[in-house]
Amino acid sequence: MIKKINSKITMIHLSDMDSNIYLVGKDTLVDTGTGNNFAKLHSILSRFGTDFDNIKRIINTHMHWDHIGGNRFFENAEIHIHGEDAKALEEGSAEMTNAGYFGNQMKPMEVSRKLKEGDKIAGFEIIHTPGHSKGSICLWNKNDKILISGDTLFSDGVGRTDLPGGSEEELAKSIEKISSLDVEKILPGHGDMVEEKGKEVISEIVNSVSEDL
User: Fold this and answer.
1) CA-CA 20 to 30 A from 160: which of 67, 74, 150, 175?
2) In which domain, by residue range, is 76 found?
């Protein structure tokens, strides 16, 4: 599935095993999926006038393999990920990235920039939202009211906390943090996007899961 979000952002869904991938402009990707469907991804990128060699920047919302596995095919791209999750990539930790579950072997990846709260990149502000992993982030575009939420928040719930680095307490605080944003569109790491009234959707999710968290 391919969905044009606006003039700059395109959502790419390759398979149920892959994270949603977001093409920003023609040289930036937010997450890259497992890499198992790289031929399909290459074909889609070509339709938008770019290819693997033209991608200069990858922003990973967190360290799990279904979001970072495709990084290895973009030889010219710098990898950007929060500092708390960078070590798993740099050390090639199959356990922390959960690579084995997807039938892959993890090899060390070079991290060019270790992101932190408040950093600006590709038109977005980085919001550190630990809980799904220690270094989970959301990307916030205040002007367009767009939140790329990774696995912190979906259209109908929140991310799991039972993988390495997960924490129910931290996730609850992170959801509370982003609930104050004036969000219109939510672009999650999996599943359908929220096309309007994102702030209301987040409030409903906070109310529905607060007792569980």
Assistant:
1) 74
2) 2-209
